[in-house]
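Predict structure. Chain length: 237.
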Amino acid sequence: MKRPLIFTVPKVSDQRNEDGYSCSHRKQVWALSDGASISFDSASWAQILVRRFCRDTRFSRDWVTAAVAEFSKLYNRNDLPWMKQAAFDKGSFASLLGVQLHDDARLVQILAIGDTVAVLCDGDDVVATFPYMKASEFDQSPQLLSTNPSENGFLGEWEKSDKLGCDWRFDRLKSPALLCMTDALGHWFLSRHEEGGIPIKTLRAIKSFKTFVKFVKAERASGQLRTDDTSLVAYWS
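Prediction complete.
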């Protein structure tokens, strides 16, 4: 079974990357998360979410409660300065995109909360995207998972709908590929696609971290790629 290529570049070279990713090759599971910069230690929260998904893909409100408990063990609130206590109480926020392959990669199950996106392609054609379908959707405030339980009330409603996930098939495509991208790259991809470009060609040519860094720097310099933590998980079937 092929393994996905994983590349990530921070917003600023000397700052912590708040994107988190994890992969279980044995289970054929991987996850990507984008921690919200404005919230308290979102990098740690993002990393907890992706590690936990790769250990247990059975996402539920109880799953989130256990993740929150894990995060809470990182800090003693009373030891924090008062300004950080307020930020801690408000909560940390992050997206979560989880992928699991089944039946020798014929079936792909996607879980998505927030603005980290998955794109299914067949050759140079975009077959489907989730959870966003248009570049303009990145202009709205995303619904994110939080370490503050009161911020996760939306899960009760979402569990009764199709907002949390979707299933895709690889076996009906001639040359399938699955791309997972945090918001800056997802916006770049959908924008280029809507303009009539073929962004998957550009990403298909990226085979090394050095090439990915060069691509990110060039697109940021041109103004085409937003300056943010930028991550790509690419599965070329």
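Summary: The chain has a mean pLDDT of 94.
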